[in-house]
Amino acid sequence: MRELKITPIRNGTVIDHIGNGLALEVLRIIGVRDLDKDSTVSVALHVRSGKLGWKDIVKVENMELSPRKANAIALIAPTATLSIIRDFKVREKRVVDLPPRIVGVLRCPNPTCISNQSEPIESEFGVLTRRPVVLACAFCERTVDDFLRHLA
Amino acid sequence: MSLHGRDITSIRDLSREEIEEILAAARKMIPLAEGTKVAHPLLERIVAMAFFEPSTRTRLSFEAAVQRLGGRCLTIADAGATSLRKGESLYDTIRMLSSYADAIVIRHPNEGSARLAARASDRPVINAGDGSGQHPTQTLLDLATLQEAFGTLTGLKIVLLGDLKYGRTVHSLAYALAEFGSELVLTAPPGLKLPEERSEEIRRAGGRVSEEPDLRKAIRDADALYVTRIQKERFVDESEFRKVAGSYRIDVDLLAGAKPRLIVMHPLPRAGEIAPEVDPTPHAAYFRQAFLAVPVRMALLTAVLGPAKRGG
User: Do the chains contact at B115 and A114, CB–CB below 8 Å?
Assistant: First the structure.
């Protein structure tokens, strides 16, 4: 196998098998600005992939993804895999998985839904169908399948 | 009944068996609702009426239901008079209210507000309409009207007429009728048709749905005609509105082509969709429908609040 064109990291997270062209959205979810100022973020776009044809990869130093961010990635990049790196070694590897409830990740597309008013609650969606992924708002029942447009 | 302590925020919260139980209990409540018999299963109970949006019929029928059963109401009838105006969240208002009352009935302009209220309250919450969302007790009283007229909710052919896109009452009624195995015929002006996801949902529930834009044809062999108000604000062009509204006027001439037993239903208030000349005919069921709101809400409140604390 050829070496990747981006350098290995000591500690952090590698998000591999991101659908082609979706890496920037993944970065948006990770919230690059919130990272440790000494962290390096490497992005590889349009990389050859046996499984996907083409894929994107994101490596973030000194960060382990919160479950909420992993859920958001599962929505927009369902093929992604997460590897937790500690001391240059892969300590944990898993595919992203869509949980039955998605809390605080998306905004309800219905502007008059109570979850879009100034109430002390987080948005919440249940999974209506998994293939394709369609979610329903736990408050107003409005469905959403266009997740990029509704990221919170 | 197993409904004790439960929130009723959507008709989907109720199984077919539970709906049947509520309708059976509602039939027994009719003499109490009429005032010809007296019983007080809600004695010493307080029900909060949290109405954050104007409503006459729904609030008064809920209040009548509570009072006929010996309970008392705490009523918010004007949202402007509450701390919501001072910026208090609905969540906090409901949380506070749930410590004063045994159950909360809520009407609110935002969809999903009843679900939010149910989370905020440790007492049962009944949704009395949340924006263009759910209005389960309206559906229950619609079903009660059909059942009283035909003795069944299965195998009926029901024409849904008017604004099927935005009308909140028709969506949950259509869903419930599909569950009971009745056939739906949809007659809606272009632009106000039932959303495809709703039709799909009805088909998934095992319902038969067809469209018939010609109202005369649609009602020819129907058992019930459910009329909804066509709202002027849904049209960009007022002349278009008048044309549509005019083509859906229910009068004696139109009903001459229907079965003698066809009933005409309407959630009221009507705005010219049904000519007053229909009122004295056996077809008119809308005032009966409005009355049945009381026994249906009595049955639901009794089920949700459970047995009387003492005596009753």
Answer: yes
